[in-house]
Amino acid sequence: MIDQTGQRVLVTGGAGYIGSHCTKRLEEKGYQVVVYDDLSEGHREMVLGQDFVQGDLGDYDRLTETFEGLDIDAVMHFAAFCRVGESMEEPQKYYHNNVENGLKLLAAMREAAVKKIIFSSSAAVYGAPREVPISEEHPKDPTNPYGRTKLFFERILADYAPAYGLRCRSLRYFNAAGADPEGEIGERHRPESHLIPLVLEVALGEREEIEIFGTDYETRDGTCVRDFIHVNDLAEAHILALEALENGEEGHHRAYNLGIGQGYSVREVIESCRRVTGREIKAVEGERRAGDPPELIADPGRANKELNWQPQFRELDDIVRTAWEWHKKEAGL
Question: Is the pTM of this model over 0.85?
Answer without folding.
Answer: yes
